[in-house]
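Query structure, 283 tokens:
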């Protein structure tokens, strides 16, 4: 059984009602193992000779009303290898707790704060402390939970991180009906499975997620008619429009633009209706 020696954070954003987990490790595809989350229930990071059943079982327990502390106690109670385990948990109400088994590889430990828990094992000392300080600072600034989680990972890596080096990282954020099209709670699930600088790559993926699926800023809306002359040549070149380049935003131009927006996966930023369009779509 391989040791999943890593550092992670579980956290809750009460404003957006989001629960999330971020993790980095010298472990292939760590995002397929450590992070678990469910809207309204909470989030779990299971690591260090990870017992993957802690994820779904823990979420079921919290969905049933148990607190983060109660969930951890129940999970480790009948686990004969509990001294090897480590986990961080935040429940549906945002209460956080963590557990570090007595036999986890040094340095191992955790810090629990208001609405978050940072934990890690086989680390350079100071990693978890840097993470906790970073998250508390980041959540008071700009961005959203995914940004704060990845920034926290970067702070942990800058402080030393996993003694063995880097390989994989991931961030998972859930919110009720937060998934694509509003049909699931999986708002964001991004993974870097094998890369020399996984946190840097993960940050770029989060930025791309914001571009394709982020909320439209009303300040970024521009009249479609004001950019029709710029768009028509592009639409013609791409084969969606064969009308005149006249700068008029007529029905043919609208249909062509909606097709191209969909091909470029930007439909969450413009649905083909109305007289305005997101400036980021135009760019």
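Result returned for the query:
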């Amino acid at each position: 059984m391989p040791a999943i020696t890593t550092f992670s954070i579980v956290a809750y954003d009460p404003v957006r009602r989001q629960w999330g987990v971020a993790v980095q490790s010298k472990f292939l595809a760590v995002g397929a193992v450590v992070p678990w989350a469910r809207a309204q229930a909470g989030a779990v990071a299971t690591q260090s000779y990870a017992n993957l059943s802690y994820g779904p079982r823990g979420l079921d327990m919290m969905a049933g009303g148990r607190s983060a502390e109660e969930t951890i106690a129940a999970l480790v109670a009948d686990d004969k290898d509990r001294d090897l385990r480590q986990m961080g948990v935040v429940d549906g109400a945002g209460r956080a707790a963590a557990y570090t088994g007595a036999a986890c590889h040094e340095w191992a430990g955790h810090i629990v704060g208001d609405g978050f828990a940072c934990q890690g094992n086989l680390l350079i000392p100071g990693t978890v402390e840097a993470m906790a300080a970073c998250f508390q600072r980041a959540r008071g600034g700009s961005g959203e939970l995914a940004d704060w989680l990845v920034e926290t990972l970067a702070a942990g890596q800058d402080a030393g991180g996993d003694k063995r080096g880097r390989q994989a990282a991931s961030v998972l954020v859930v919110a009720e009906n937060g998934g694509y099209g509003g049909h699931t709670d999986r708002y964001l699930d991004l993974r870097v499975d094998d890369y020399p600088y996984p946190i840097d790559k993960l940050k770029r993926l989060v930025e791309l997620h914001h571009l394709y699926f982020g909320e439209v800023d009303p300040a970024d809306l521009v009249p479609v008619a004001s950019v029709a002359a710029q768009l028509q040549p592009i639409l013609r070149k791409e084969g969606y429009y064969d009308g005149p380049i006249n700068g008029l935003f007529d029905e043919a131009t609208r249909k062509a633009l909606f097709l191209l927006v969909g091909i470029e996966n930007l439909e969450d930023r413009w649905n083909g209706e109305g007289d305005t369009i997101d400036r980021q779509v135009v760019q």
